[in-house]
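Protein record

Derive tokens from sequence
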Amino acid sequence: MADRGCPLQPVPLPAEVRESLAELELELSEGDITQKGYEKKRAKLLARFIPLIQGVDTSLQAEPRIPGPSQTMAEAPKQQKPRPTNSRDERFRSDVHTEAVQAALAKYKERKVPLPSKRRSILVHSSVETCTPPDTSSASEDEGSLRRPGRLTSTPFQSHSSVEPWLDRVIQGSSTSSSASSTSSHPGGRPAAALAGLMAHTHIGVPVNSRVSSKIQQLLNTLKRPKRPPLKEFFVDDMEELLEVQQPDPNQPKPEGSQMVVLKGEPLSLGTPWPPSLLAALQRWGTMQPKAPCLTSLDTTGKAVYTLTYGKLWSRSLKLAYTLLNKLTSKNEPLLKPGDRVALVFPNSDPVMFMVAFYGCLLAELVPVPIEVPLTKKDAGSQQIGFLLGSCGVTLALTTDACQKGLPKAQTGEVATFKGWPPLTWLVIDGKHLTKPPKDWHPLAQDEGAGTAYIEYKTSKEGSTVGVTVSHASLLAQCRALTQACGYLEAETLTNVLDFKRDAGLWHGVLTSVMNKMHVISIPYALMKVNPLSWIQKVCLYKAQTALVKSRDMHWSLLAQRGQRDVSLSSLRMLIVADGANPWSISSCDAFLNVFQSRGLRPEVICPCASSPEALTVAIRRPPDLGGPPPRKAVLSMNGLSYGVIRVDTEEKLSVLTVQDVGQVMPGANICVVKIDGAPYLCKTDEVGEICVDSNATGTAYYGLLGITKNVFETVPVTAGGAPVSDRPFTRTGLLGFIGPDNLVFIVGKLDGLMVVGVRRHNADDIVATALAVEPMKFVYRGRIAVFSVRVLHDDRIVLVAEQRPDASEEDSFQWMSRVLQAIDSIHQVGVYCLTLVPANTLPKAPLGGVHVSEAKQRFLEGMLHPCNVLMCPHTCVTNLPKPRQKQPEVGPASMIVGNLVAGKRIAQASGRELAHLEDSDQARKFLFLPDVLQWRAHTTPDHPLFLLLNAKGTVTSTATCVQLHRKAERVAAALTEKARLSIGDHVALVYPPGVDLIAAFYGCLYCGCVPVTVRPPHPQNLATTLPTVKMIVEVSKSACVLTTQAIMRLLKSKEAAATVDVRTWPTILDTDDIPKKKVANVFRPPSPDVLAYLDFSVSTTGILAGVKMSHAATSALCRSIKLQCELYPSRQIAICLDPYCGLGFALWCLCSVYSGHQSVLVPPLELESNVSLWLSAVSQYKARVTFCSYSVMEMCTKGLGAQTGVLRMKGVNLSCVRTCMVVAEERPRIALTQSFSKLFKDLGLPARAVSTTFGCRVNVAICLQPNRLGKLAEQGTAGPDPTTVYVDMRALRHDRVRLVERGSPHSLPLTESGKILPGVKVIIAHTETKGPLGDSHLGEIWVSSPHNATGYYTVHGEEALHADHFSARLSFGDTQTIWARTGYLGFLRRTELTDASGERHDALYVVGSLDETLELRGMRYHPIDIETSVIRAHRSIAECAVFTWTNLLVVVVELDGLEQDALDLVALVTNVVLEEHHLVVGVVVIVDPGVIPINSRGEKQRMHLRDGFLADQLDPIYVAYNM
């Protein structure tokens, strides 16, 4: 590798030249100088240096990022002017990196993201102009315009010569995502990462309704609509909807070096007289030099509180060992046996007690397990620690008196049991609680062999906590190796700022220090927070030779050092930087050296090291006097690193990673680098891999986890030929890196932070560093950022969560977010899937104040982060969606029939029982006109009750016998002819509340030859939305008169009504409350059965008002079919809880009882709002065998009575009488609801199979009704088979196919048949486009033929031709004679194994959904209900959901049933679930209050109303997130 010229840097420029260059850059970026002038001046500045650097592109020299002398690989760095630093906690940026980020951002002009709108937001809704990208930046898709973004992105320090070839690459569609034009419209180019795409968004003019709000118009201008291929009849597609597999880029860098060889460290020196064990060393110092200081602990003011001497450490440890072994008993047995594990729970401020406890355990042959002090019952990761303690079998925890008092307590005063923790006994080990051992007692400690010495906990990327066991032999070897590598001498002083419970703080400050009788000054974290300079002051005060710190501590002390003149660091011979492997440690080291070199700090003193919990210390830099080579730096191409290849950065000026070496291999260890994935093959010399160590000083296992132990601690690296490199196993360190020149180890990242997006790898730490370099101080609170990846649609997606400062405004946050997206895109060439901002101090904290990343990820996935801002960019990140479907060559209907025949499939058609066989035709003729039937019943059974109407209290408010109804109808008929002077055939609107008056008015109209139209009355509290519908129906139906009650009449003419509609244009309004008793001379008899009987108006879910015409013949045929299917006789009682205004609900209320003579108990659904149990109580009270309801009624009962079944049973509600409970619907059966209803009310005796569904639509209100299936009727031949449920593949449905799968298989969707087809009804499945018949189990449109089909739509504007096709369609092939009506619903027929009464095999009809409602996206057909079901499952706070499309974007509206601050948690979860389950990218997520999604009386969502409300900005949403 060294001979290939490892990442070295060109000769640096003098500081003053660099300063002039920087000023020049600034002038150019601020527009004070032209590009030409800039180049001229720059060339002049650089002219005298050109010869120095032969063959290096001049543009490289001008780079402002070229480091100062202290950053080059020179051996003695010179003094350099200190850089101004920014005060920030936790993490610090590399200035190098910041300059790169700022340069990257300079490429993008200031551009705004469509801000999400937030209720009560500080934001004033901005107008369109302010947020729409200016037109100048939107490139069209011709080549000429491609050059514009090319110019735009060529950074100031690229001379034109380097721009040209770069541009050519862009034009060919390269992966340079910084080129704004490589959006997805270019084949071959990957979609430009977020916001780069913003620049290329062409403004395609969209005819948008003038009511569209500015917010939405703005989004439309921002998001470019992909061109979509038309959805044609047949598509080439794989059934599996294969996800795109990202093809490797042919130009991606590949490793070219030779295979690496194992790197051997120096041998452990044999000459030194090592103590035989650590405890032997402790005993020796404790008895021979008891006064020697071992450890000084400080308080938060920096005062030395206590100095532990070696004598004290020895005696107190003995005392503790004796107590543990002899004084603790349970049931007269000793509590602990040698080898048992014991938890050590000590605060960071008490190293003394910790040390006593640690050595006390070793002396007693117990295994210490140091853990963090649990502060609350819900600490981040606390449950995982509990799992570790449980798996280690820990029963005893040692702690101090003070710490025990501070632990959370239970009511009993005992220490609380933490979630997931095993029951623990807490032992306080302060002196007074321990027993002095007898003089002759000596511990038997064997501390040499392979037995476990201690267990150190480690938290993995997923958040699980494991224990790394370290044996006595490893412990000793580690102490010896560190002593040799660091050149520790007896009685040296070491200042330790790290956590002494684990990692380097424990290895140096508790173990190796005792072996060498060193004096450790322990600086608590709390003191560092108060006084970041404290460690430097202590080094100075105690003349410490060694200091152990993290980059954070160096950074903090830089910020605080200004006033301090009198500190000197000349005593230090080693400043060990424990996190030297982090990408940001290099800038801290450099900056620290710059400032403190003048205070005695020698450059060679800074010693970064690399360690891992599994391998302990991996490498450490040695000062020259210990034989270390000069330090080195590498400036690596970020792009190369993402492919795992090491390239010195030459071309991409911005995306680089500068890393420093972490020194040499430890003494006595061997190191090699193996491939990250798959078998552990050795890497090439220029390839990044995982570093593996073979040494006696590594950990030995993960406690109790044999499988992963073998993988990690017993890896056998092999050469390319497969030969093992050594007969000893290696330990994987989890560190990614390579071996550089002089055999120095370089670390570029950690396996835990690795995110594999597509084929490239990115490191979480690098992305954090980039985000922090975007104006960090202004915005991010204390630098607290978490970056992790989540798996969505089989790929890692990057999520960035940052805490924003409390005073940040909405504008700030969105500006920051968009800049972060740009910077990450530029520097890492990767898109961020989700960028989330949370309030300050709300991310879960790790023990020493950092962000607990795995816990943050867990909260993100559970929707528990509670962000205050979210920006999702799925459009740019998700590049592996299946290809949109494309059209196949034409396949005609004939070929389909032949295909079905060849495949052995029957043509899908089915029919109900034949009417001719079922009853004598005389009766059918006699009952041809309903008015005749009513008169006949009034004459033959005058007092037979037909109707009972119940109010909310369950009392009967009105009844009607046959004769009463007949007389009321006569009165109405008389009033219509005399008062309103209507003639035969006039239309009459009946605006009544549900009740007997409505039924009487209906028959009154028929008696005088008028055509009734039932209309739902307006809602007095909601006139503005309900009255216009009433007015519209009255006008569209051309009603000549309105019949109503007095109260409603007053309402229709009121002032409130006048505010909504023009009340002067109402036709005659008659109230029927007190009309005189009059008979009509003669009841009108229609001249033919085909005369119009009534009009049935209803508003479809898509918001279309459609009225259908029902003739007398169709009306009586409908009643006859229902009578036969449900076996309705005068002796029957049925309960109806439906609205009486349209469809089957109207037929059951107004028509069937008169036709069949049964008694109907009428329960208006509105009454259930004040008494939910009304319907079920009525069913029980009247012992109704048959009852009808709607889904909304069923839902009200399920939600409202769920917990009250016991109370209802006490009240005597018993549903065992029910044979059939039918849900009247015009949609796919809602299986989940019917099943939960059945389960819930099983307790009240509801038979398991009673609930069934019906299906009707506008062209035929009753196609399927499930008949009775139980009891004696089975013998009478009317029983049908049980409704069958099948599971279909949801992906196949999107392709208009049916594929049956097993229950529980992925993507399965349960469908239940919609009931048995009514007598006289024939059904066929036809292709939606070709109108050809389809085969069994094929998805197509349901066509129906029956005597009770409606005869057509009733419309004003003579659009009959348009709709004639719905009522009189013919197949294009096969049986072309039959006239069919098209239902507008997709479904399929399937012949089942069951037989019906006649012995025929039963054909089940499955309704999938309305064609009008389907969404066509990506060339596929989606049913909204499927997407909504997935969304509702995504989070418990989602009460309801509705989806619709708007200009090719999928809009998801969710009702939040929870606190408003949780609203933003839903955005990512909704986006994830829709991507995962439906392969769709959500465009807009709208979060609203419960009840905003409009639902009609049938319980169907009015998605189009919702869409209109959204476009007109009337929803008052809590939050609207526009996914970029």
About this structure: The chain has 46 helices and 62 strands. The chain has a mean pLDDT of 82. The first helix runs from residue 15 to 29.
